[in-house]
Amino acid sequence: MGDTTPTALISSQAKQATDTSPTLALHHGINADTSAQKRALSYSITIHQLFEQVMQSKQPADRIVAEYFRINKKHGSKDRRVIRESLFGLFRWHGWLNQLTTLCTAPKAWFASLALTAKIEGHPWQEFSDAWQTFAANPALAPLNDAGDLTRLAAKQQLLQACFPQHEFALTQLVPTWYWQHYPTSSEDEQYALIEALCSRPPIWGRLQGINSADALASLNASGIEAKMSDYFDDAINLGHKSINLNSLKLYNEGQLEIQDLGSQVIGHVCAPRPDDNWWDACSGAGGKTLQLRSLMLQQDRHSKGSIIASDIRRKPLEELAKRVKRAHFNQISVSPWKTDALPVASAQFDGVLVDAPCSCTGTWRRNPDMRWLDDASAISDKPALQLDILQRSAKAVRTGGVLVYATCSISPTENEAVVEAFLASNPNFTLQQLCHPFTGEQQSMLTVLPYQADSDGMFVAKMIKR
């Protein structure tokens, strides 16, 4: 249910990246004559250090980058953007770029990777991209100079193929081979759409609380954020792709805006809590869905007497939940952490129980492209036994006539449909409820939200009724 790697270890690793490293060999034989070239070389060394640190430590890239910037405060906002977006771009296209080591000499393969990443990601720092291409000193990169519209994935593939025609750059290489064993796509079109979505940056999705959309949009526009409302949920808002300093936003500080992906918001709408229901969020984490459940209650009745208990085995996320509840000015939310295998709440007392189970998080690979290459098949195959155990335990808290919702941010049937089917096989007093997919309109017994359907993360959800 979470990572337990000490922050001190990450700090030590981040500090090591600022000291001595084999990465410094990138300096050798490179003549950086202009100011732009010198900065480009400095960036390339830092990015390489961070890339290698992620791959060796197997720790999430966003955590390692955050710790690096915390230690190295010399970087301005542009430095941070170049470093961060280049690093995540390298992971996004790693399935293709890792082949350059056999096509280019080291360290020139690294500079070629940076130049290609900048081009296919459409990064605006042309002067650094040009410098990296110069450092690569490889005539094979000439097609970069005349590349046209690279919006579609097929165009990016064609560019790589034009640079290195002797090698194959297959679309399926952008996702680990083991993954397709756990997510068999029904058609080539679906496979293409999924890969294209996984290789694009999702927008920042938010959710409004206690404020109408017109006032929210006006406030955000005044802060320079070009936001727009979702076509699917009245309280869902698209905040675009640019980084946002949330603490500078009035809406956020006053609890009227929460960051929550659109796919994640599907879960709350499937739960559909009534104003006076009592719910238990059995794996709440920092409480994004807990807050959504309470917000949905209050949207129906501002005097709602419904309540929610949030539980997790980790204390820090629950502490963060408490801060978010206070900021939102919500009442009727309490915390009861898991301390043993025994239920931390009363049995058979809840109108609804949400089990957002720990999973492989393959549905969030758009936001965390590094995890594609850090995980292996065990990230999926190790989870179902734990997921089923949590679901079995949590189901005991549902009253007769109540609902049990099982959700993950995975899109693998191994962690989703298979777990629900195993649960139903041993719990005949629960039955599946038919659901309408919010993005496709299809009636389904279990929903899988795919990233390309509404520009969101991938999610899964099933809703059961206790007879």
UniProtKB/TrEMBL annotation:
<feature type="region of interest" description="Disordered">
    <location>
        <begin position="1"/>
        <end position="22"/>
    </location>
</feature>
<dbReference type="InterPro" id="IPR049560">
    <property type="entry name" value="MeTrfase_RsmB-F_NOP2_cat"/>
</dbReference>
<protein>
    <submittedName>
        <fullName>tRNA/rRNA cytosine-C5-methylase RsmB</fullName>
    </submittedName>
</protein>
<dbReference type="InterPro" id="IPR029063">
    <property type="entry name" value="SAM-dependent_MTases_sf"/>
</dbReference>
<feature type="binding site">
    <location>
        <position position="356"/>
    </location>
    <ligand>
        <name>S-adenosyl-L-methionine</name>
    </ligand>
</feature>
<comment type="similarity">
    <text>Belongs to the class I-like SAM-binding methyltransferase superfamily. RsmB/NOP family.</text>
</comment>
<dbReference type="Pfam" id="PF01189">
    <property type="entry name" value="Methyltr_RsmB-F"/>
</dbReference>
<keyword id="KW-0489">Methyltransferase</keyword>
<keyword id="KW-0694">RNA-binding</keyword>
<feature type="binding site">
    <location>
        <position position="312"/>
    </location>
    <ligand>
        <name>S-adenosyl-L-methionine</name>
    </ligand>
</feature>
<keyword id="KW-0949">S-adenosyl-L-methionine</keyword>
<feature type="domain" description="SAM-dependent MTase RsmB/NOP-type">
    <location>
        <begin position="192"/>
        <end position="467"/>
    </location>
</feature>
<feature type="active site" description="Nucleophile">
    <location>
        <position position="409"/>
    </location>
</feature>
<dbReference type="InterPro" id="IPR001678">
    <property type="entry name" value="MeTrfase_RsmB-F_NOP2_dom"/>
</dbReference>
<keyword id="KW-0808">Transferase</keyword>
<dbReference type="InterPro" id="IPR023267">
    <property type="entry name" value="RCMT"/>
</dbReference>
